[in-house]
Amino acid sequence: MLLQNDLLLRAARGEKTERTPVWLMRQAGRILPEYRAVRESVSGFIELAQTPELAAEVTIQPVDLLGVDAAIIFSDILVIPEAMGLPYEMVEKRGPWFPNTVRSESDLKKLRIAEGDNDLQYVMDAIQITKKNLNGRVPLIGFAGAPWTIFAYMVEGSGSKTFSLSREKLYRDPVFSHQLLQLITDSTINYLKAQIRAGADLVQLFDSWAGILGPKQYEEFSLKYISQICDAITEVPVTVFAKGAFFAREALGKLSCETIGLDWNMGIEESSALIGPSKTLQGNLDPAALYGNPDQVRKATQDMMGQFRGKRHIANLGHGVYPDIDPEMVKVFIQTVKEF
Ligand code: CP3
To answer: Does an H or E element contain 260, and which?
Structure first.
């Protein structure tokens, strides 16, 4: 299927584009009333994610309603632990929770390496339906969590302010830590390759908890595994978003991926110098900037676009859009990028 709008893919590869492509992290299923309507027709997030027709519907909503230049498949980074044998629950208003955790050698033995096609068939079905219904309008982004971020949830069993249990593991039991990280990495490669076979046009790794590690530990326990994934995925462009990893920008620039995501704490000029000209940069407006009025949102967006001028760029926020943002302000952001 030929894409009518392939701005995202061309920008990722560093090719010329008529304008900068724009999409938002977490654009599916957070801010739209149309999402909430679908969400209320099922028992919860997990049922929605596991019902391919509905997952495809909410994946396409932001394309129809907001005019973004890409769709991102509706799922979660935590489907990987589940496929490895560690099921999760989504607790209303509190977030993800795992009844079991992985903290010992015997916990490790109960896990398996996930096979994308068999263990996560519902994601592949959702991707196929989405591709069919998008009918080439925009590219579809597949995604996974980076191994360190997934490790943190599997050890901790939930979100955490400090992730001190998972960081304790890195110090007290590096052998266990590397074994678990390798299992996650192998599972993630299988999963992303299955998403690409099903139709994903680009894949993104979310290292949401990158910023809680120091530079040396980040190198040893996160980048090493992200690097394996980047080397393994040669079929489509890869984006790495390592939130808070300002200290690793030079090293991120050396990965064999096309795009590096920036959060809003990272200076654009400085990041570009550290990462180098061989990568596209994605980001990086402060998600809170969308709490402003239309003039303020326009001004903040133009300011960001001005700083990226002349650089390889995919416009986005510096993290996922916040759930209480007015969709009208998201439209102002998108429109301002398109007109820049
Ligand atoms: O980008 C998209 O809109 C596609 C779908 C998507 C979801 N989660 C759906 C979701 C994506 C890309 C994710 C990624 C994700 N999930 C990350 C990495 C990105 C980031 O924000 O740093 C992380 C850390 C998670 C884990 C997770 N899932 C948390 C902490 C929560 C609870 C709070 C929250 O963020 O909403 C979730 C739940 C979740 N994942 C929801 C959605 C739409 C809300 C559940 C609901 O509808 O009840």
So the answer is: strand 259-261
Q: What value does the mean pLDDT take over residues 65-74?
A: 98
> What average pLDDT does the segment 197-210 reach?
98
Q: Which residues of 48-83 are buried (b: 16+ CB within 10 A; e: fewer)?
A: bbbbbebbbbbbbbbbebbebbbbbbbbbbbbbbbb
The span from the CA of 203 to the CA of 226, in Å, is 13
Could you confirm whether 26 is annotated as catalytic? yes
Pocket of ligand 1, candidates 76, 90, 264, 330: which has the most ligand atoms within 8 Å of its Cβ, to mutate? 76
What does pTM read for this prediction? 0.97
DSSP state of 69: S
**Residue 90's pLDDT band (cuts 50, 70, 90):** very high
13 is catalytic: no
SS3 state of residue 105? helix
Give the CA diameter of the chain. 57
* pLDDT digits 0-9 by tens, 268-316: 999 999 999 999 999 999 999 999 999 999 999 999 999 999 999 999 9
**C-alpha–C-alpha distance, residues 100 and 88, integer Å:** 8
Catalytic residue among 26, 137, 197, 298, which?
Answer: 26
Q: Which one of the listed residues 13, 76, 286, 322 is annotated catalytic? A: 76
Contact 80, 145 (CB under 8 A): yes
Q: Which residue, by CA, sits nearest to atom 47 of ligand 1?
A: 45
The answer, yes or no, to whether the previous bond of 118 is cis (omega within 30 of 0) is no
Q: Is 39 assigned a catalytic role?
A: yes
CA 221 / ligand 1 centre spacing (Å): 23
Upper half-sphere CA count for residue 330 (Cβ side, 13 Å): 26
First vs last C-alpha separation in the chain: 29
